[in-house]
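Minimal example, chain plus magnesium ion.
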Amino acid sequence: MFDTLTDSFKNAIGKIRFHDDDKALKKATTELKKSLLKADVHHKVVKELISYVELETKKNGVGKDNFLKALQDKLTDILTIEGAAKGFTFASKPPTVVLMIGLQGSGKTTTTGKLAYFLKEQKKKKVLIIAADLQRLAAVEQLKQIAEGIEVDLFYDEDATPTQIVEDGIYKAEKELYDVVLIDTAGRLAIDDELMQELSNVKQAANPNELFYVADAMTGQDAVRTAQTFKEKIGITGVVLSKFDGDSKGGVALGLTQQVGVPLRFIGAGEKMPDLEQFISDRIVSRLMGAGDVESLAEKAAAAIDPKEAKRMTQKIKKGQFNFNDFLAQMEQMKKLGSMKSIMGMIPGMGNMAKQLGDMDLENSDEVKQIKALVSSMTRKERENPDLLNNTRKRRLAAGAGLDLQHVNRVLKQFKNAAKMAKKMSTKGGMKEMQKMMAQMQGGGGMPNLPR
Ligand SMILES: Nc1nc2c(ncn2[C@@H]2O[C@H](COP(=O)(O)OP(=O)(O)OP(=O)(O)O)[C@@H](O)[C@H]2O)c(=O)[nH]1
Ligand SMILES: [Mg+2]
């Protein structure tokens, strides 16, 4: 997610030895300055960062450790507003009411869904979404689909005004003891007085704990400017940067908090519901410095993986009983973790691998699609016991999945091998062997060719 920025810092750090001179420091900071500007970080922020790092490093003695410490301290400072909320914070008295606002098409509705999913899955909260966008004809329909997909309740009323809907929705949330209310509003320009007045009224009716401004990261510095305008006209408590997966070089995220004076709270990097990351400054700094973000990863995994189910699965693997139903169940769990790329980026030292993975979509890879197609043509018994699959049955599957027999054989064999490998890994020495293999791969110049 922060590939460009992480590379910039890594390069600069690489320019300084453990003990070095001012010349090396200058070389490192000059290069850093250039690459940060190129990555769209605002020039004032770059200047502030560079002067601090130069000064502090000189003061403490030019060398890698002092350079790293200065960089880390200043980055944390730039990304933090003292006393302000980080990630998601809950009101002392539920429900926590969040108003989602922003320009047309910035990603409000999608982000509302992602936030609801995050709160439901990771924080185990009861969430109600209120559809208060009556400008666009299909807006309520879009939210219905999103809410259904993530199994979160939706409140809507196509015959009422946004203010009425918000009042009624919050009344329902209070009565039915919801933890969080997310209000999706219509997209609008700050210069549209009528719509801004409506928003102001909605705000008054909602009396929200948080006002999240959803900004499209691909608009670069415009995201910052419009956030500033909404802050002045309506008041905002946080910014969510959406579409960070696009062409974004990441620089906007680095300067935004300081430029707007409101913390960046979440980053959306993909169209799917799990593609939302909390923006917690010290964790982000760790990622920027190439040290990964194990905390966020652990939180995601803990929420996505049901411990009982995980144990049951391990037992099955150990006994060599892993079947096609288990495979489908595992795929469902994987989906909750988000994209492979975002997961890799959180593991220390795996940032480069994340880059090589590109936008690989495990769920939609040809291999997984083929297995899914095959499984959907199988009977219940066949799913539970792949050994039942003789040639007659395989031919039936081939016809059902639109593959030839050879293909079916290959997919089945791959599946069998994978199950065998998993069984081996689950034995005592298995993990060690795997680690040895990984070490060899890394020492041997990185990864073998990965599927795209
Ligand atoms: N790639 C990518 N696309 C996104 C992301 N967030 C939203 N989108 C896409 O952006 C488009 C607009 O998203 P919406 O959520 O409908 O935006 P909105 O602000 O509600 O739009 P209006 O209600 O019309 O103002 C959709 O096609 C989304 O799928 C993201 O993080 N990454
Ligand atoms: Mg919308």
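The pocket of guanosine-5'-triphosphate (ligand 1) is lined by residues 102, 104-110, 133, 136, 139, 187, 242-243, 245-246, 268-271, 275 (CB under 6 Å). The chain has three domains: 3-79, 96-280, 306-443.
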